[in-house]
Amino acid sequence: MYAAQLSLRSIGMKRRILIALMTVLLIGFLLPQHLRMPVEGATTGSYHPESFWHHPWGRSGTHKGVDIFARKGTAVNAATGGCVIYTGVLSRGGNVVLVLGPRWRVHYYAHLQRIETRSGCWVSTGDRIGTVGDTGNAQGKPPHLHYSIATLLPYPWRIDGDPQGWKKMFYLDPTDYF
Prior knowledge:
Blueprint: H1 2-30, E1 66-69, E2 75-77, E3 82-90, E4 94-101, E5 105-115, E6 122-123, E7 128-132, E8 144-151, E9 171-172
Antiparallel strand pairs: 1-8, 2-7, 3-4, 3-6, 4-5, 5-7, 5-8, 8-9
C-alpha cells in the first residue's frame, strides 16, 4: 500500500514538473519580439544583405550572422529585450554579449570595443549594451558588429543542401527582421 502511494505521488510530481516546463516554454513563445537594428544610426546599407550564410568564411566555414559596419565606438543597442546570459571574451568573437530573448532565441553581439552591460541583467529593446569595435578575429579589419540570432528550439524544416546547411535549423537571418 505504501509503495503504491509513493508511486502515485511520484507520478503527480512528474506531471506538475512537466506542466511547469510546458508553461515556461509557452510563455517564452508568447513574449512579443520587436527587433530593431542594433547599431545606432545604421541602415540596410551598413551591411551586405547576402553575408548571412556566406561560404567559405574563415575557420567557422559559413558566416552565421551579419556584419554591420560603423565607426569604432558607435553605440550597440539591444535589438530586442531579454536576459543577458553572458558577457565576456571569446577567441573569435572578442568582446561579446549574449541575450536570451523572446521565442527562446539567443542574440549574439560580437567584436565589441566595450561591453556596457553585465550577465544576469534584463535589457529592453534599445538599451545600450556596448560599442562597435574590432576585437577577436576582427582585429585589423574595419570595425563592425557581428550580430546573429540562434534559436534554442530547432527548426528542422530550414535544413538545406548548403555547406553546413543542417545548422540552419538553429540560425536565423537577422536581416529578415530589420
